[in-house]
Amino acid sequence: MKAVGIIPARFASTRYPGKPLVMLEGKSMIQRVYEQVQTAAIQEVVVATDDDRIRQHVLEFGGNVIMTSAHHQSGTDRCYEAYTQLDEAFDVVINIQGDEPFIQPEQVNKVLGCFTQPDAQIATLIKPVVSPEELLNPNSPKVVIGAQHQALYFSRHPIPYLRGAEPHEWLSRHGYYKHIGIYGYRSTVLAQLTQLQPSGLEKAESLEQLRWLEHGFKIITAVTELETIGIDTPADVAKALLYLKASGQ
Fold first, then answer.
1. Is position 241 within any domain?
2. I need a labelling partner for 15 at 20 to 30 A (CA). Which of 88, 98, 154, 206 fits?
3. What is the pTM of this model?
4. What is the C-alpha to C-alpha distance for residues 122 and 186, in angstroms, rounded to an integer?
């Protein structure tokens, strides 16, 4: 099974413009993501960007980069355009967010491993929720899964609702999962996803993966115990620097 890792990276982030180029202890965020993904069990890694500053920087540290349209509404769409520009075909495309500088190779491999199941169309990572704050944080989407580890629904609200218990008791009475935003797609499925129109559930929750579920696609989940630190705002950089100092990276 041949797999390519594609890292969407745009400059014009609403909450943090230019964040792929922010420096974290001598290396840019996008370089850290790239180097982490490079050691996973995939055959190629490429950055997909719409900005020449990012393109030039990736070339400077020796990475592969593809220029894509500035008008994509999602990382999935950007991944697909980049995939169509590659010189060879791959069975699986792994979409790694460009603001996850501490993504671990074994997490990428867990997503890739889901495709040993013949009926796997899309795969993603989930992690047990460990604190009430995390459970109630709308910026950390939650997911419920079925008996075969397929995703049933994603929500910014804690799901399931625990009837007869106060919210602060929920975590002690039920096991909850949060979503880690790394995706894998069979390349044939990725092409189909880009043709779908935004759905009602997606608009309600502002979660792209609900569009896929609503249109009948199957998302397989793999559980990770490893924490990631996504950088969404300048305030998150301080957390990342503390993590780097503590881990000695």
1. no
2. 154
3. 0.92
4. 7
